Amino acid sequence: MIRKLIAVFALTALCVAPVMADRLKDLAKVKGVRNNQLIGYGLVVGLDGTGDKAPFTNQTFRNMMNQFGITLPDGVNPNLANVAAVTVSATLPAFAKAGQELDITVSSIGNADSLRGGTLLMTPLKGADGQVYAMAQGSLVVGGFGAQGQDGSRITVNVPSVGRIPNGATIEREVESPFNRGDTITFNLLRSDFTTARRVVEAINGRLGPDMAYAHDATSISVRAPRDPSQRVSFLSILENIEVDPAQEAARVVINSRTGTIVVGQNVKVSPAAITHGNLTVTIQENPEVVQPNPLAQGDTAVQQNTQIAVTEDPARMFQFGPATTLNEIVQAVNQVGAAPGDVMAVLEALKQAGALRAELIVI
């Protein structure tokens, strides 16, 4: 039955193309299909005197020498200027197989000045469970560089203590995926929304038949799927290309107080309100004056401070918002007043406190 549905839908998908809709793959991710983070600790060698002098670097170097049958005498400090201790991180994608290669990022954890020209020695990369999933090694590509003079002056471009190794790790262990388990495939929406979840269910059932999909909540939608892996792959390829008209987002105003960025959502409205916002400017000017003593007074020349303080208040224009003011009207009103981003933030916060802003105000 599933195979017939796949064949029928493949034909209808060529003839029907909804307008102004998003593909399911752009709205949701398949449950269980995820990346995994890997991390390791190793040594970078071959540096041009830009290594670190951290105690753990010497300890790691001693341990490595012991593995090669070389024992350093106790109390001897190698002073390794060409070696740096680093952390190695990588992302293991879903369905990655043994023998495939990964890009890795190498970062200094000591006081190394630069990793340029260095070579990472064989480093095991472990997952959150402590198991080794990949082995890393190779020559670093460092985008930054630095230079320093004898007088202490220095210049640094980008970050020379971090480098990349394309295809620098080889996968040794595979992560078991729950993709082929059970009789259903579950999609998790990137943004939880009850309306979008309902529309996804309706779109799938409208193409594949009734009761093929059902929603658990505002995030998860399960679809009945074949157990055979090859059929399941074809079935999922069809599902992720179904086009759905997502619901409009809730009314939000986002303010970034550090950069002055203000984003007003499409559905933001303002209840009737009158607003005025003025600026008070205080100017302090120091005018030192030289005071000469009387020639017969035998005094000393002195400097007398002359401070002038001026307070000016720019005239503020008042503007009024009518009932259910739209986004376009808000932008026009702000532009007419010529308010700066900081002033707009203060106005929006005051509107929210007054209960006139019919939206969620988010300050980041």
From TrEMBL:
Assembles around the rod to form the L-ring and probably protects the motor/basal body from shearing forces during rotation. PANTHER family: FLAGELLAR P-RING PERIPLASMIC PROTEIN FLGI, FLAGELLAR P-RING PROTEIN. GO terms for cellular component: bacterial-type flagellum basal body, distal rod, P ring; outer membrane-bounded periplasmic space. Residues 1-21 form the signal peptide. The keyword Signal applies. One of its GO terms (molecular function) is structural molecule activity. One of its GO terms (biological process) is bacterial-type flagellum-dependent cell motility. The gene is flgI. This is Flagellar P-ring protein. Belongs to the FlgI family. The lineage of its organism: Bacteria, Pseudomonadati, Pseudomonadota, Gammaproteobacteria, Pseudomonadales. It is found in: Bacterial flagellum basal body. Coiled coil: none annotated. The basal body constitutes a major portion of the flagellar organelle and consists of four rings (L,P,S, and M) mounted on a central rod. Transmembrane segments: none annotated.
